[in-house]
Amino acid sequence: MIAQSELMILIQFPHLRRRSMPMTPLTWITFIFMTAALGGCAGIGGPSESPFTYKDIQIDTASAGTGDGSTIQFKGNPLPLSGLPLQVGDTLRSANLAKGDLSLIDVTETGRSVRIINIVPSLDTKVCEQQTHYLSEKNQGLDQHVDLITISVDTPFAQARFAKEAGIANVTFLSDFRGGTFGQTHGLLLEGPHVLARTVLVVDRQNVIRHLQVTPDLGHMPDMENAFQVARSLVNEAS
Predict the structure, then answer these.
(1) Which domain holds residue 70?
(2) Residue 14: inside a domain, yes or no?
(3) How many angstroms separate the Cα of 10 from the Cα of each of 32, 149, 162, 190?
(4) 188: domain CATH number?
(5) Which of 47, 101, 138, 215 suits a disulfide with 198, CB 3.0-4.6 Å?
(6) Is the residue at 54 inside a domain?
(7) What pTM value is reported for the model?
(8) How many domains does the chain have?
């Protein structure tokens, strides 16, 4: 499960992430490079030479609701979700995310193929790390036919560091660190800690959401195999 100390790191500077606060270019630059420096201290070096060790983390098969009025459990306490409710059959909603070079891309323009969108609170926690490794390493060749995307509120610098150290090259990382716009727009923002709810989406070529699971407990894994199965069926439909 996500350690409470790790979650506290995420909420240590909420005033820098609130959309309601005016953010000058200088403030953003200071925040970005401060986070990059802190992230660089956490792990320096190239890709890990040893394979990732998967841990026995509970997998949720049910899904929580999304948007205002829904909650996610964390250490037995409910955390309220914020934003517009989302369900299977809805289309992705326009929201900008930051790429590794800090340029922005609308989530609706992330590709014309089937996409598995892996959404995690922070890559610096064990469950998020395992969820993203699972997406990359356990998809049994789906990455040859679908796009794999991971979204978190980590800065693009932290995401790039994680990908390099993990040796993950088949996943596109996008950041919602600029105010949580994607999370708010899709009902997946945990407003208190200002992180995204743990979620897996499967989106078809027309941006229609064909699979949606939000883990009821923030410390549990989603059923990635179920998401893979839905994505595989969409690929087979098109062939």
Answers:
(1) 4-45+61-238
(2) yes
(3) 14, 22, 16, 12
(4) 3.40.30.10
(5) 215
(6) no
(7) 0.81
(8) 1
- Look at residues 4, 24, 32, 137 and name the one whose alpha carbon lies nearest to residue 13: 32
Catalytic residue from among 95, 127, 128, 230: 128
pLDDT band for position 191 (cuts 50, 70, 90)? confident
For this structure, is 41 an active site residue? no
Helix (H) or strand (E) holding 38: helix 25-42
Are 2 and 125 in contact by the 8 Å Cβ rule? The answer is yes
Region 137-151 average pLDDT: 97
pLDDT tens sequence across 18-74: 333 344 444 444 344 434 433 333 333 455 556 899 999 999 999 999 999 999 999
- Beta-ladder partners of 196: 189
pLDDT of residue 1: 42
Helices 126-137 and 224-238, packing angle to 10 deg: 30
